[in-house]
Amino acid sequence: MKSEQKFSADKAELRAYAKQIRADVINKEDKALIIGTSLFSLEEYKKCKLLLCYVTLGDEVDTENIINKAISDGKRVAVAYCTDKFGNMEFYYINSLDDLSVKSFGIREPNPDSCPKVTDYSNAVIIVPGLCFDADGNRLGYGKGYYDRFLQKYPLFSVGLCYNNLIVDNVPTDCYDKKMNVIITDTDVYRINGG
């Protein structure tokens, strides 16, 4: 069920609200499997050669099954690596989740010394984390700007994942925030602006 949130709040207040709602979601594992199945049915997923994906942290929608399935589907899979504390990141190819270890912000990341860096982002789909989204494709991240900066540089087909009760009425945005092309929840798939 869609959240009853009626915020005209700032991002900090909405972040606190979304974190609490997400922490209280039940059956996260089952919902993540439903979300993954919807992702795999997208034509954009079926046609892409490269899947860029975040690795789950805390209460986020679990992406381990997505990563494993994409690898088994014969896609190249790459995971984000934070290059600094100023919102810059790159992606590195992985062959399995074993290629990851805990690094920046407690997130599992690839080792840039052993994993090849992605230099060609053609024919790619990017899975983007978020605390909550609205039906217009706006995303509330964690405030560091990593994915917005990356999508500014590489305007890829983007997919946001979240639980249905974290589709809110309105996510406050600024000029740097990038909209998603598709948002997938455990009950709906939202296509935005022809996405």
CATH top level assignment? Alpha Beta
- Distance N to C terminus: 23 Å
Uncertain runs are: 1-8
CATH fold field value: Rossmann fold
- How many strands appear in the DSSP assignment? 12
Describe the largest sheet: 7 strands, mixed
- Average of per-residue pLDDT values: 93
What topology, given as strand order, has the largest sheet?
3-2-1-6-9-11-12
CATH evolutionary superfamily:
NagB/RpiA/CoA transferase-like
Strand content: 15-25%
Q: Look at the helices and sheets and give the structural class.
A: alpha/beta
Helical run tally: 5
Known CATH architecture = 3-Layer(aba) Sandwich
Percent of residues in helices:
25-40%
Describe the structure.
- The protein is an alpha/beta fold.
- The chain has helices at residues 11-23, 28-41, 43-47, 64-72, 146-153, and strands at residues 50-53, 76-82, 89-94, 100-102, 108-110, 124-128, 132-134, 139-140, 157-161, 167-168, 182-184, 189-191.
